[in-house]
UniProtKB/TrEMBL annotation:
InterPro entries: Cupin_2, RmlC-like_jellyroll, RmlC_Cupin_sf. The lineage of its organism: Bacteria, Bacillati, Actinomycetota, Actinomycetes, Propionibacteriales. Pfam families: Cupin_2. Residues 40-98 form the Cupin type-2 domain. This is Cupin domain-containing protein. It comes from the Bacteria. Gene3D superfamilies: Jelly Rolls (2.60.120.10). Transmembrane segments: none annotated.
Length: 123
């Protein structure tokens, strides 16, 4: 069996304008009964408008920079390799002054502290 390599930058993306979003596009690349995975891009100055999370949501910044906020409206800056987690129903927003690519995983996720959960097959 060969490893499959996915080129997330080459996925077909569709623009999203819901919730006042601008410069935002998504490309789906995975789904399970409990979660779905999408690649997202935000153009410079782009926004994913404030909206409630349908399920627990993990946003992982791959390149560029994100400014994220949740229900408390405190803005946090994220760079490559950093992630934000929003709980089901939590109203949140993401902006990017310079542009960003990221991966979003949304669904029935068990997200602990970094390094807290290890797949037994990995040790």
């Amino acid at each position: 069996m060969r490893v499959r390599v996915l080129d997330l930058s080459g996925l077909p993306h569709r623009p999203i304008e819901a919730h006042g979003s601008r410069g935002f596009s998504v490309g789906a690349f995975g789904i399970s009964a409990d979660a779905h995975l999408v690649a997202v891009t935000l153009a410079p100055g782009g926004t994913i408008g404030r909206h409630p999370a349908v399920a627990r949501q993990l946003l992982v910044v791959l390149s560029g920079e994100a400014e994220v906020s949740g229900a408390e409206l405190v803005v946090r800056r994220l760079g490559p390799g950093e992630a934000a987690v929003w709980e089901p129903g939590e109203v949140h927003e993401t902006r990017s002054p310079r542009g960003m690519t990221a991966m979003i995983v949304e669904g029935d996720l068990d997200i602990g502290a970094p390094g807290e959960q290890v797949d037994p097959g990995d040790v």
